[in-house]
Amino acid sequence: MALLPVMAAAHANSQATQNLPVKSFISIKQPGDPAVRYDLKDPAQASLPVTVTESTRQISDKEFAFTVIIKASRRTYFNYQAEIGTGFPSEDSEYYLPGFWYHLNLRSPEKAPSFHSSKAWNFREDRMSIPMTAAFNKVDGRSVSVMRKLDEGCDALTTSLEGEVILSGESSIGFLGIDSEKPVSSLTFGYPYMETPTSYIRKLTLAPPIQAFAKLEPGEEKTLTWYVRTDSSEDYGTFVKEAWEYSFDRMAPEPLVPLYTPEQMKAQLSKYFRIGLVEGYPLKFYTSLGMRIAECKNVPIMEVGFCGRTLLNAFNAVEYGYQTGQEDIVRIGNSIFDSFLENGFTSNGYLLDKIDFRRAVPPEEEMPLSIRRESEGVYALLLYLKYEKENGRIHKEWDGRVRTLLDNMVSLLKEDGSYPRKFRMDGTDVDSSGGSTPSATSALVMGYKYFGDKKYLAAAKRTVGYIEENIISKSDYYSSTLDNNCEDKEAAIAAVTATYYLAKVTKGKERQHYLELCRQAAYFALSWYYLWDIPYAQGQIFGDLDLKTRGWGNVSVENNCADVFVFELAHIVKWLGETLGEERFVKMYELISSSLDQLLPVPGRMCGVGKEGFYPEFIQSTAWDYGKNGRGFYNEYFAPGWAIASLWELYSPTRTSHFLE
Fold first, then answer.
1. Phi/psi of residue 485, each to 5°?
2. What SS3 class is residue 209?
3. How far apart, in whole angstroms, are the C-alpha atoms of residue 491 and residue 559?
4. Strand 175-179 vs strand 184-191: parallel, antiparallel, or unpaired?
5. Read out DSSP for 183-206?
6. Rg for the chain (alpha carbons), in Å?
7. Can you tell me the distance from the alpha carbon of 467 to that of 495, in angstroms, rounded to the nearest whole number?
């Protein structure tokens, strides 16, 4: 490749870089030819068409800024890469890439990014809820992190998802990574983005690597800055807590100006309570799974919890209908409850928690049940029954059904305080994993509050004993999201919710203990929520809509997208912040509650949704999709029932606290 005369790469040293050695490289690409990689500290380096100046600025005894200025002497296409040696033995190193990588990601399967497939990875920054990579030494508690903060982001469309790709315009997206292949672990970073040894393009689909190249014209320069920090923590959970606090302070995300008031959101979403009703089957329910987002045509799949949340939306319809004088949606909500009372239970008292009426319905003994769906059904039923009782409407038959269901849950509880993730109506396990156990805690506490039966409280405390020992103390939040079995946001949220419920119904030292567990879990739950705005290109729907992702939550390692799943978490976090004097938690409540209304379909701004009254389930926020359309767009299909229920909870701030009073 023809290059201009040698132009030296300058490097500035400080005590910080001496302690944390930095190696840096630049890859130069001539269009049509393979890129060539150069070691920037090799004095025998060939001539380069760029000058690369690296410098450090000490910020504190723990932190310094690492700045790189790349200036071109002719048109150049480049990719800059750097790595910082942590000094930690690789065998002692664990990692944290917020919202995407925890420990070694060993809960994730081989076909998702994890140590099962490789011990060295580089990822696009927009896979992470915070553009940070961090290493933790599990033996002595030391840690190193690298984080990038952008004042304003931008992105450009690309022609390929693999290989060497020249960006079609300006993009701010870089990469962050980890490396435990060598005896001493390293953190990697650079610009523009690359993904190695594979990229991750859809659920359980590892794909060929990609390396992007940015263009500089003659005399043009690019300035890049990363923040490097060292610290020491007593364990991995404390490390994540302190890294999140540092990230929050450094990123300093500000709440948005909401597009709509809570009243306006509910008024628009309540249209779902009419048009989302599915009838003509033994059960009446609200549509959710399997819908095409462009059509919003009802599909006859019933799901009590998880992606359906049909009973919770039925209660929302009843409560809202009474509050606003809309008798028709009260009737619709009550008709759903009536159909479940008649046809919605197994012969021994469990809820039939998912049925696809497009297919032959199997015998009830063959239907796998899930502790999460059953628990979410109890949650909705007890909210409904308490509301009805407070308004002078008693449902004795329903009371009996819910007691039987709760008694079944007590009987299903294992000796160690765990619940199987999935089981049959006879109590035998389908999936014995205990990761979904926190889902049951809140249902049991609610049963105690509603019926006054202490056996439900005792069972709830046993579950939190399991949660404390196996989930919170190990910082191992997994297996709550039912369409994957990996590290996920909803597992951490379930642990927060479970411990919050017990903190609200206990006193003294016992309450303080549950409060502390709740606080520990909250840091992991919040680590999944974006503190920055992912940039999108014009031509991608989220770029055209100017979507701000701060306040949205990443989903899981397997399902690497963002969504509006929050339910009670925002209110719990606010309560924690006010109770503990943790201002960051209160600010996170403000951030989340101001951000999640951005894709509400209204006349003149339908946001790509086929009908008013629905809300998108998730956004394909990075170079990953559920099967169609790719980054910056929705998938073809969505499940809006849970999204509507989640937002309804966000805009119903006193619902849980009122129940637990």
1. -140, 70
2. coil
3. 14
4. antiparallel
5. SEEEEEEEES-EEBS-EEEETTEE
6. 26
7. 7
CA distance 417 to 347: 26
Domains in the chain (CATH in brackets) are 10-229 (no CATH), 359-523 (1.50.10.10)
Distance CA 477, CA 474 (A): 9
pLDDT band at 44 (very low <50, low <70, confident <90, very high): low
Q: Is 132 helix (H, G, I), strand (E, B) or coil?
A: strand
How do strand 175-179 and strand 120-124 relate by DSSP bridges? Answer: antiparallel
C-alpha to C-alpha distance for 46 and 28, rounded to whole angstroms: 12
Is the distance from CB of 351 to CB of 344 less than 8 angstroms?
yes
What percentage of the chain carries pLDDT values higher than 70? 97
Q: Provide the β-strand partners of residue 618.
A: 563
Q: Rounded to whole angstroms, how far apart are CA atoms 298 and 307? A: 14
Shortest CA distance to 592 belongs to which of 526, 641, 499?
Answer: 526
pLDDT value of residue 483: 86
Hey, is 37 helix, strand or coil? strand
Q: Are 548 and 598 in contact (CB under 8 A)?
A: yes
Contact predicate 274/329, CB 8 Å = yes
Helix 489-505 / helix 569-580 crossing angle, nearest 10 deg: 50
Give the pLDDT band (50/70/90) at residue 595.
Answer: very high
What pLDDT digit, counting tens, does each position of 183-194 carry?
999 999 999 999
Confidence of residue 481 (pLDDT cuts 50, 70, 90): confident
Q: Return phi, psi of residue 502, to 5°.
A: -70, -35
Question: DSSP per residue over 475-497, as a string?
Answer: T--BS-STT--SBBHHHHHHHHH
> In 10 A of CB 397, how many CB atoms?
9
Look at strands 369-370 and 637-638 and give their pairing.
unpaired
Model confidence at 46, in pLDDT bands (50, 70, 90)? Answer: low
Q: Which amino acid is at 426?
A: D
Could you tell me which of 73, 76, 74, 57 has the C-alpha nearest to residue 65?
Answer: 57
Beta-bridge mates of residue 132: 147
Task: Report the distance separating Cα 68 and Cα 24, nearest Å.
Answer: 10
Contact (CB, 8 A) for 195 and 122: yes
Q: Is pLDDT at 7 greater than 50 in this prediction?
A: no
Identify which of 574, 372, 575 has the alpha carbon closest to the alpha carbon of residue 463. 372
- Strand-pairing partners, residue 165, are 212
Pairing, β 76-89 against β 210-216? antiparallel
Rounded to whole angstroms, the Cα distance separating 565 from 257 reads: 20
Asked whether 642 and 288 are in contact (CB, 8 A), the reply is yes
Vertex 535 angle, CA 533 and 538, to 5°: 135
Rounded Cα distance, 557 and 559, in Å: 6
- How far apart CA 647 and CA 641 sit, in angstroms, is 10
Could you tell me which of 441, 404, 414, 411 has the C-alpha nearest to residue 426?
A: 411
**Mean predicted confidence (pLDDT) in 305-326:** 98
Rounded to whole angstroms, the Cα distance separating 493 from 506 reads 20
How much is the mean pLDDT over the chain?
95
What six digits make up the tokens of 24? 């840096």
Provide the residue type at 23 as one letter.
Answer: K
- Rounded average pLDDT over 475-502: 94
Q: Give ∠ CA 62-68-73 in degrees, rounded to 5.
A: 170
d(CA 81, CA 86): 16
Are the beta carbons of 463 and 441 closer than 8 angstroms?
yes
- Distance (Å, whole) CA 147 – CA 403: 51
User: Token pair of 121, please?
Assistant: 């990875």
Q: Are 383 and 371 in contact (CB under 8 A)?
A: no
The whole-number pLDDT of residue 485 equals: 86
